[in-house]
Amino acid sequence: MMDQIAQLAAAETESYLLGSRLLETAITLVLGAVLGIGGQLLLDARKGQVEDYELWVDVREASQKAEGIGRLNTGLSLVAAGDRVVTDPYVVDFYVWGVGKRDVRTEQFDGQDLEFHLNVPIIDELEGSTQGNLESARFSFDKDGVVRLAPSLVRARAAKRYRFLTDGKPQLEMVNPVADLNIFDFSEQWQKPTKGQVVAKRLAITLTTLAVLAFIGSIIISLVRYSIEGPPPPTLISSDDISIFGVPDSELEDLPWGILLVPIFVFLTFGLFSYGAAPSRRPRRAKRLLDDNLEPSGAPALKTHNG
Question: What single string gives the DSSP state of each residue in 239-260?
Answer without folding.
Answer: GGGB-TTSSBHHHHHHS-HHHH
